[in-house]
Automatic annotation (TrEMBL):
It comes from Halotalea alkalilenta. It is an enzyme of class 6 (ligase). GO terms for biological process: 'de novo' IMP biosynthetic process; cobalamin biosynthetic process. This is Phosphoribosylaminoimidazole-succinocarboxamide synthase. Pathway: Purine metabolism; IMP biosynthesis via de novo pathway; 5-amino-1-(5-phospho-D-ribosyl)imidazole-4-carboxamide from 5-amino-1-(5-phospho-D-ribosyl)imidazole-4-carboxylate: step 1/2. GO terms for molecular function: ATP binding; phosphoribosylaminoimidazolesuccinocarboxamide synthase activity. It catalyses: 5-amino-1-(5-phospho-D-ribosyl)imidazole-4-carboxylate + L-aspartate + ATP = (2S)-2-[5-amino-1-(5-phospho-beta-D-ribosyl)imidazole-4-carboxamido]succinate + ADP + phosphate + 2 H(+). InterPro entries: SAICAR_synt/ADE2_N, SAICAR_synt_PurC, SAICAR_synth, SAICAR_synthetase, SAICAR_synthetase_CS. Keywords: ATP-binding, Ligase, Nucleotide-binding, Purine biosynthesis. Residues 7-231 form the SAICAR synthetase/ADE2 N-terminal domain. Its EC number is 6.3.2.6.
Amino acid sequence: MEKRNELYAGKAKSIFATDDPDLLIMHFRDDTSAFDGQRVEQLARKGMVNNKFNAFIMGKLREAGVPVHFERLLSDDESLVKRLDMIPVECVVRNVAAGGLCRRLGIEEGRDLNPPTFELFLKNDALHDPMINESLADSLGYATIEQLATAKRLTFQVNDVLRQLFLDAGILLVDYKLEFGVHKGELLLGDEFSPDGCRLWDANTREKLDKDRFRQGLGGVIEAYEEVGRRIGVDFG
Ligand code: 5GP
């Protein structure tokens, strides 16, 4: 596998072409961003931790039958993935109220959401990722109704798998964001699943073990990611 030119640099990852047009390399950098990229800091080991965390989770999801773009780990901070045409929409499931939902509806953090909720947001930093819905995404050409229905079904399937996986390690999966893309006509889970894009609380103490530690200046960000990883069985080497 030959690494070629950089195609895209996001806030925390960079994407490189390879000699195979169907495959890309995802490089996890140490950059950590919040507030739509307005705050960016380097956190030592973050690229390695998120790369290995994501590889572990993607492996579990693939075993459970979720179609994923992840192929395999290449190095401490790089993974091989299938090339996707990304759908510019974020799919969010919430099991417990936190973050944007509490701000928007004025409800208290920590309230159980039963059944879990499903929301769509447009990926657009300049507009602060505004909430959209299936009708808007369809009419504006971001995705078809069929793709959105598949993305919703897969996002809930991910909840079934990961909620239990984290609970077995004494961790609550509060909420998370997924992104999907199309590879040769098939909708696949893309991007990453790491503590950067979900909320994870200790089930007993409700201590935050995710990117909210960075957003809220609580410190111990990577230590918390590593703690979650160790508890669920990620091998950080
Ligand atoms: P909220 O709507 O409460 O801000 O976010 C809901 C969940 O989706 C949280 O777990 C949050 O980390 C994740 N999320 C939402 N938008 C983004 C985003 O643009 N980037 C990342 N990394 N995660 C996001």
